[in-house]
Amino acid sequence: MKKEKNEKYPQIILASSSETRINILKKTFKKIQIKKHKINEKREKSINKHLKANELAKHLAKKKAESVSKTNKNFLIIGCDQTLECNREIISKPENCMQAKKNLMFLSGKKHKLHTCLYVLKEDKEFFIEEVTSELYFKKVSEVQIDKYLKENKETALNCVGSYKIEDNDKYNFLQIISGDNESILGFPIKKFIEKLESENT
Asked: Could you list the residue range(s) of the whole structural domain that residue 65 is in?
């Protein structure tokens, strides 16, 4: 994206505290604000158990954007969420290391899907939605390998769906990407959103 176009875009607010998403956004836009969303994800998941994994990702992304939009109606608000589905079960962020280990043991030797949704509001109205599903294979790993990973990456494990981060794969080599691009797997499929903004500013 050209710098002069970058400066034409309205203020963007990211309703997330994810460092990965913040870093990706900063590479593209100059005028951004970071505001943590105001929804209780655990509660939302509990009362929306009827939703499929991809539907839940969209629901949460929308709720996150809406929670910030109420007091920032004149900005572009980005909400984003990612759910992990394995054997038709939705795997959430663990609350402790024991749950993180359980997640990784469950994923070991199985394929799983990452459903990602980027939801954007403009003037409190739906402006853009991108929904992407990626598929990965978590290689069969031993309990010892999992314990080692958790010991070295405790904070990461407790803050990611599935208890792993794709960025760690170069070091640990436990994932094989079957389908999906890097930004979608990272949880922030922003390319088409940028293309939409560019088309409106040409």
From this structure: 3-200
